[in-house]
Amino acid sequence: MPTEPALRCASLVKIYPSATRETHALRGVEAAFAAGTRTAVTGPSGSGKSSLLQVLALHERPSGGRLWLQGVDATTLRPRALRALRRSTTAWVAQRPTHSLYAHLTAMGNLQQVARLRGADGASVAPLLDRLGLTARAGARTDALSGGEQQRLAVAAAVLGGPAVLLADEPTAELDDESAALVLTELRRCADRGSAVVFATHDPRAVAAADRVLHLRHGVLSSEREAGRTATVPIDGSGRVQLPPEALPLFPDARAEVVVVDGEVRLRAPGGDPA
User: Fold this and answer.
1) Which of 30, 42, 108, 243 is the most buried (most CB within 10 A)?
2) What is the pLDDT of residues 63-95, one digit of tens each?
3) Three-state secondary structure call for residue 5
């Protein structure tokens, strides 16, 4: 019997209203994230990556669709129950790492506080700082750390205690190769211990380290690729498929004829040869 994914969403929609118009950040995204895997979410700026992670992390409510975390339908929960579910199951690395840290605490103090909140073994804090190259900065307050040190500390805080789901927005942004390698290794260790790790990224180093890559375009999941396999195009619950950008010039009128032949589905421009 298939194992329930750690995190799953169906027909996920996110709309941001404004005084002049609505912005549709997500348009029916459907995806599942298994325990013990690393998923990179890619796409151009404005494609919906950060919005998707904010919703998956239970920091924002979706405008439509459903979201299951550890088998619980989070879209039906009241605010208090939603916060309790988020605290007990998820860890978050914000794009600005200071948003994930306690500003008044030292690097060591940040991890000790997280360990207490999650009921994690406090003895794991010092080795974790060492693995991320922060031992010499253990006594420094967050605001005294460099941007790269803050980013590594935010990742350390997120992996501590082995959350069921870890979500990170650009966790290797602005990091040099050595620091990025430390972060990506720690995310792999977290997944190997059973966490579902999901991160939005523009970084080719992070993409290469993922088990699976989801590509968003205009708020739609346009392709999915697992390591070592050919990319696939998802079909949403309404039967919609988003064509890759390189195929669009074949349909200059933004219309296609759909022909089913011998178990194959073929698209062609109206009146043209099969595309």
Assistant:
1) 42
2) 999 999 999 999 999 999 999 999 999 999 999
3) coil
pTM here is: 0.90
DSSP 212-252: EEEEEETTEEEEEEETTS--B----TT---PPPGGGGGG-T
- Strands of the sheet containing 212-217, edge to edge, are 90-93, 165-169, 196-200, 38-42, 212-217, 220-226
Tokens describing residue 273: 């040869």
Percent of the chain having pLDDT more than 70? 95
User: Which residues have CB under 8 Å from 211's CB, separation 6+?
Assistant: 37, 38, 39, 191, 226, 227
- From 81, 96, 101, select the one nearest 160 (Cα to Cα): 101
Question: What number is the average pLDDT over the span 108-124?
Answer: 94
Three-state DSSP at 119 gives coil
Characterize the bridge pairing of strands 264-268 and 196-200.
unpaired
Burial tier of 218 (Cβ tally within 10 Å: 0-12, 13-18, 19+)? middle
3-state secondary structure of 260: strand
Please check the confidence at residue 204 and state whether its pLDDT lies above 90.
yes
For residue 52, the cross-strand partners are none
Closest to 214 measured CA to CA, from 67, 62, 53: 53
Q: Which amino acid is at 206?
A: A
Report the C-alpha gap between 90 and 94 in whole angstroms: 13
